[in-house]
Amino acid sequence: MTVTVNPRPLVRDPRMQFARTVTALLDEDRSTALVYAEISARFFTEAERRHPERVVNVGIREQLMVNVGAGMALTGLRPVVHSFGTFLVERAFEQVKLGFPHQGVGGVLVGGGGSFDASRSGRTHQVPGDVALLDTLPDVVIHAPGTAQETNDVLRRAVAADGLHYVRIVEQTNTESFGGTGLHVVRRGSAATVVVLGPVLDDVLAATADRDVTVVYAHSVRPFDSSTFRAVLTAPDVVLVEPWLAGTSARVVSDALVGVPHRLLSLGTRRMELRHYGTPAEHQRAHGLDAAGIRRSIESFLAE
Amino acid sequence: MDNIERLLGLMTGDEKHDPASHSTLDVIRVLYERVLHLSPVTMDDPRRDRFLLSKGHGPSAYYAVLCDRGFFPESWLPGWGSFDSPLGFHPDRNLVPGVEISSGSLGHGLPLAVGTALGLRAQGIDSRVVVLVGDAELDEGSNHEALELAPALGLDALTVVVVDNRSTTYVVPGRVAERFTTEGWHVVTVDGRDRDALEKALTERPVGLPNVVVATVLDLQDVAA
Fold first, then answer.
1. Which residue does chain B place closest to A57, by CA atoms?
2. Measured in whole angstroms, how far is the alpha carbon of residue A231 from the centre of its chain?
3. Treating both helix axes as pointing N-terminal to C-terminal, what angle do A148-160 and A14-28 enclose, rounded to 10 degrees?
4. Which three-class secondary structure state does DSSP give residue A81?
């Protein structure tokens, strides 16, 4: 049964948009379910009231949360499973690995917080390694939307699709939204190709404003759009910028360039623990991922 | 020798898991032969009952019962564990007809069963979900997350069978039943070799509460040691 609802306007905050979109999806499709573990409860009040059988708060039990989602998938439902990324992906990683791909069922994991949102909370609430960890599993589709519009779009696509999807929801946003999947050519140049994944595009554009480089952007992180990447490549210099663990996507860039002589600079968060608090912007700067840091890294790379 | 014992004899090579496997034999037989609505014909019916073998170690008893019920041919049994066999030393639902979950790593089946029961309830399907765990498997903390939530949500479609052969290293007699009781489950303890007692315990269920049958199997202690 399909229930028609008036679409509510988009909000600016991706996490709030996630809650709105998932609430609408629960209204629209009776095979959609939501499983969460206390985190974000205040966003789901309406969804829980309207669909008490398909919205389940398991309490502070993340291992159970993931396998409850997988168990629902075994009965034919499409579960959306949500917590902070660190509790969803890292704490319950074996549940993700065995509950979904090993059973051969799908679902949509939505991890909040990313690398920087919990700048004041510290390491326990930060998950710079989520993309790298999920990348060890077969065929996981990974989305890193950069705006509320993209959040709405990728969630709708992920819930409508099959297989295991991961949607990385953070507070950082880009100015412009891009529809569809794959790489989008944001700017064309001839000196180097800069690949931007997720909400770090504004900083890259500011860092490269006066440089003759090609900038391509994707919120679909996996699968990586190798064919567009190869098609736009004009120079041997490649810069990869992703707002999570540096080098996470170096593998897919290298795979796309087998047989093509190239140089690669991989920018992302560093492995060391910061052990500082403060704002997300201060954390981005500490990892060299603000516009000034990205500019410095690209300048020295291209000068070599 | 009955047919299932004959089928068991066709599988060799996993003697390490023999005690684990044979401790579950009577429970699985009673479930398939007397309690659950499960057959190769209803294998893909969304309304079928579900049996989840969480304790995937030593699945030869499970394979023998599935084979006896016609889920797959007898010719699969002798080559189990070989490269091209669908029958591994831990079962894979993607390879074996009738297997509901791929198991082997302990502590996943009961949480998956809770999700399965919730998924069925959300779709208005009143089938039963029975999950078999071992007493030592309950060492894994993930079980306790499920053990607390199931009664809180009134999941009366869910039945846990604990095959208690006292294989946990730190045995506390009576602890399994007490723990489930504390969390609000309906608890019955029976002799895991007494098929009539198992049938009765597995058939009678309360309304509004999940139930657990603790099936005590102590006759394999010497073998297990």
1. B149
2. 24
3. 30
4. strand
ipTM, 2 dp: 0.95
User: Chain B contact for A167, CB < 8 A?
Assistant: no
Q: How far is B197 from chain A (nearest CA, A)?
A: 30
Position A248 scores a pLDDT of 98
What distance in Å separates the CA atoms of residue A294 and residue A243, rounded to the nearest whole number? 11
* Cβ neighbours of B86 (radius 10 Å): 16
Per-residue pLDDT reduced to its tens digit, B151-174? 999 999 999 999 999 999 999 999
Tell me the C-alpha distance between B106 and B90, whole Å.
11
**Pair A204, A196: CB distance under 8 Å:** yes
Phi, psi of A166, deg, nearest 5: -125, 125
Nearest CA in chain A to B112: A71
Placement of tokens 């829980």 in the chain:
A48
Domain holding B67: CATH number?
A: 3.40.50.970
**Cβ–Cβ of B116/A74 closer than 8 Å?**
yes
Read off the pLDDT of each residue in A26-43 and give the average, rounded to a whole number.
97
CA distance A70 to A25: 19
CA-wise closest residue to A93 among A39, A130, A142: A130
Where exactly are the structural domains of chain A?
14-169, 184-303
* Chain A residue whose CA is closest to B104: A98
CA-based nearest residue to B56, from B124, B110, B120, B126: B110
Beta carbons of A58 and B149 less than 8 Å apart:
yes
The CA distance from A230 to A232, in Å, is 6
Residue B64 near residue B26 (C-beta atoms within 8 A): no
Written as six digits, the tokens of A94 are 């074996």
Give the amino acid at A39.
Answer: I
Q: Which residues contact B127 (CB under 8 A, 6 or more apart)?
A: B37, B47, B48, B49, B50, B120, B157
CATH architecture of the region A184-303: 3-Layer(aba) Sandwich (3.40)
Token pair 């506390």 is at which residue? B172
Sign of CA dihedral A246, A253, A81, B139: negative
Tell me the HSE value of B212 on the side-chain side, using a 13 A CA sphere: 27
Helix (H, G, I), strand (E, B) or coil at A96: helix
CA distance A157 to chain B (A): 22
CATH number of the domain at A14-169, out of 3.40.630.10, 1.25.40.10, 3.40.50.970, 3.90.1150.30? Answer: 3.40.50.970
Flag if B149 and A98 touch (Cβ within 8 Å): no
Please compute the mean of the pLDDT values over residues B29-49 and round it to a whole number: 96
Residue A3: pLDDT band by 50, 70, 90 thresholds?
A: very low
Contact B119 A77 (CB under 8 A): yes
- Asked if pLDDT for residue B176 goes beyond 70, the answer is yes
